[in-house]
Amino acid sequence: MVETGGAPLRAAVVGTGLIGGSILLRLHRAGLPVSGWDPDPATRAEGRRQGLTFPDELADAVRDRDVVFLGAPLAALPEMLARIGAGTGADCVLTDVGSTKSAVAAAATAHGLAHRFVPGHPMAGAERAGLVSAVPDLFAGAAWVLCPTAETLPGPFRKLAALIVDVFGARIVPMSPTVHDSVVALASHVPHLLAGGLAGATAGSPVRDAVLGLAAGSFRDGTRVAGTPAKRTVDMLLSNRAEVLAQLAGVTAFLDGLTAALRSADGDRLLAYYRRAQALRASLPERRFTRSRRSFPLAGPLDEELRFLLELGAAGGHLTGCEVRDATVTYLVHRPDDDEPGGDGVAPLG
Amino acid sequence: MVETGGAPLRAAVVGTGLIGGSILLRLHRAGLPVSGWDPDPATRAEGRRQGLTFPDELADAVRDRDVVFLGAPLAALPEMLARIGAGTGADCVLTDVGSTKSAVAAAATAHGLAHRFVPGHPMAGAERAGLVSAVPDLFAGAAWVLCPTAETLPGPFRKLAALIVDVFGARIVPMSPTVHDSVVALASHVPHLLAGGLAGATAGSPVRDAVLGLAAGSFRDGTRVAGTPAKRTVDMLLSNRAEVLAQLAGVTAFLDGLTAALRSADGDRLLAYYRRAQALRASLPERRFTRSRRSFPLAGPLDEELRFLLELGAAGGHLTGCEVRDATVTYLVHRPDDDEPGGDGVAPLG
């Protein structure tokens, strides 16, 4: 049981779609007192129907809470942050679940909440929607980015990290907002663009019907996230525009190289490109991690702990434990083993 | 039991990797006399270890057979076709499983085998490899393209269609070689290019390690077929070069439109693009078919039957039955219901 000073942690979730709703269900199942709120009255009614606490007023949902998760859409985050900041106590930890982090971090600073807001991003379940699709085990084993700062590290970050590991079974990936936005541009947003391009082009193609008839694994996989609600995808892309365009340029350049090699029927060059791609893909399910423990004195200094955390996330590592005891914080660390990045295709291809 | 003139059909499979091996296992499980051959002695030994008939000489494997499946790699098909044509009787039906059809159809014509060669393409299981990965149920419910001609329709096509439906439980999609190659360029080969671009660009990215750490569904799905053995992907792309480049141009144009809208932060336009993409993706798992029976007199004329078959495949339909009885051939036909192609995004966007 997650506790704060002996009493169970009191939580709220504001915005209870698929992600927020799944957080709410998990907290409820864990036996924590948790209230939910959503701007949609039908969602609040659905929540009550499921036996959850869903007051009609936002202020009633977040009052006297130790932690509030913001599941609101990206565009609504800055305003919701201000409202929730005003309705919660000075010790209440705030976090969000949005798919980009720099903008919301800046909004928290602008609202004077930077000392208790920890930007967050659980990486799970983008293609369904709504509280009705929510499931409490959505985050088991999933990566959950948290962005620590020197200001939030001592209290809010550690409290939230412990909660997310203990209650959700997620892997904490510590990252700065700017590194996060650059990484998800390539890990998630560009894949959404490619899927949109493939599905959209097929919709207008003269061979559309026959393509649907023959669509096997590669087409189904390559278009799956095009099934995400369009508005959500568009908001996500717009919120990370510069980084998405920058990472897309890298993918387009590689694709142009592939295309040029295909056009000139250069089999050797195509093979070099595809060996590089194959090695990268092979390293995905086969990643091996070395586990270790790393402790820091609670009294600080904080810069070493912060540097350690941010370096771990950038290296592809994560945390599966965060324990505060005897004036020490101890992290359970998973650092990826060196997998000879890129294999035989690592030399520049031109 | 599939029979020919009362006796069970005798089959052979030449080239027993994942696809050929799975065909062999299924025929064997169905109780048909079937022999296998592979140029790799270790594969032949593995086949014998599994209790299958695997002579050392190709000629011994294909002699006195009613049907031979060619599972050889694309590059080896023309030569293998000539050898197998010479080693089999005038009534022996030949088919292949390659991922493009125009080149092998031309090779069959060049070798004087067009009257008994039916180009084929089962759409299943591209990312594994080898007889050790073969499973007999690989094709259950899968699309299996067959290319009929007026010449092969009366005997070889109908015999093969019945075998594939009855023994493999696959859906027969009748198509001409040129339509097939154009459709698979968009349904399979362009997805392989996009996956290669995403995986290859990530391999060389400075944020590679962090991307692997955060890789969620969209990245895993978007790179999955980049895990296909590189040589096989390259041979497939090269064998369908012109069509792949043509279909890629359409996808790139749509992607350029998406990118331009993102660059200019045009949310409305992005939304229109993504609604089109979402509608296409939504139509994939929700396809509904109307079943019917269609009969033709065995005595012909054949042009009406051929036109019917090719039109059905181009419309995204398929066959799940082919029965010859009382001087009539009867097909069990599945034709997709009209699903308002493209939804609200069907108007030209660009």
Automatic annotation (TrEMBL), chains A, B:
<protein>
    <submittedName>
        <fullName>Prephenate dehydrogenase/arogenate dehydrogenase family protein</fullName>
    </submittedName>
</protein>
<comment type="similarity">
    <text>Belongs to the prephenate/arogenate dehydrogenase family.</text>
</comment>
<dbReference type="InterPro" id="IPR046826">
    <property type="entry name" value="PDH_N"/>
</dbReference>
<dbReference type="InterPro" id="IPR050812">
    <property type="entry name" value="Preph/Arog_dehydrog"/>
</dbReference>
<dbReference type="InterPro" id="IPR003099">
    <property type="entry name" value="Prephen_DH"/>
</dbReference>
<dbReference type="InterPro" id="IPR046825">
    <property type="entry name" value="PDH_C"/>
</dbReference>
<feature type="domain" description="Prephenate/arogenate dehydrogenase">
    <location>
        <begin position="9"/>
        <end position="292"/>
    </location>
</feature>
<dbReference type="InterPro" id="IPR008927">
    <property type="entry name" value="6-PGluconate_DH-like_C_sf"/>
</dbReference>
<dbReference type="Pfam" id="PF20463">
    <property type="entry name" value="PDH_C"/>
</dbReference>
<dbReference type="InterPro" id="IPR036291">
    <property type="entry name" value="NAD(P)-bd_dom_sf"/>
</dbReference>
<dbReference type="Pfam" id="PF02153">
    <property type="entry name" value="PDH_N"/>
</dbReference>
<keyword id="KW-0560">Oxidoreductase</keyword>
